[in-house]
Design a protein that fits this description.
- The structure is a single chain.
- The protein has six helices and five strands.
- Strands 2-1-3-4-5 form a five-stranded parallel beta sheet, with helices on both faces.
- Strand 1, helix 1 and strand 2 form a beta-alpha-beta unit.
- It is globular, with a radius of gyration of 15 Å.
């Protein structure tokens, strides 16, 4: 597993649970694990609407990602305002979703693609994968910035 201590600079993520979801145990465990990896975590807790994630991003534009968990399976409905928040720039960092992505014991195979269609950048099945996913997202953003700088100069 990677560590935020192995890379240069402060690493901050915004964490919360989808708007209709009050399950916070996994949220607290993920925050604890990420802090143990050296990440600074702005934890918005349970029942977090897209607008609250956008407000937290406005306060922390240096955030590497917004991490949204769901246990009740209604995350798609809870993120219906995400496309507008992304288009307007109110959320300008990658959005990562994890947890239970659909309702019922038989999972909806379209749940993943519907979340990507809303503007979710990554879906994480195992929270232990989060630091590695964040490392890859950070590396991708650094490469894009490098290419953009080279095009300007």
């Amino acid at each position: 597993m990677s560590s935020a201590h192995t890379t240069a600079g402060r690493r901050l993520v915004i964490l919360g649970v989808a708007a209709s979801d009050c399950h916070v145990v996994a949220n607290q465990l993920i925050a604890y694990a990420l802090r143990g990896q050296g990440f600074e975590v702005v934890n918005l807790g349970a029942c977090t609407p897209v607008e609250e994630f956008a407000r937290a991003y406005r306060e922390h534009p240096e955030a590497e990602a917004i991490l949204i968990g769901s246990l009740n399976g209604h995350v798609h409905e809870d993120l219906r305002d995400l496309p507008e928040a992304r288009r307007s720039g109110r959320i300008g960092c990658p959005v990562v979703v994890g947890g239970n992505l659909s309702v019922g014991s038989v999972k909806d195979p379209s749940a993943v693609s519907r979340l990507y269609d809303l503007g979710v950048d990554r879906i994480v099945e195992d929270p232990d994968d989060l630091p590695a996913v964040l490392d890859r997202l950070r590396a991708t953003r650094a490469e894009v910035a490098r290419v953009e700088r080279s095009l300007v100069s």
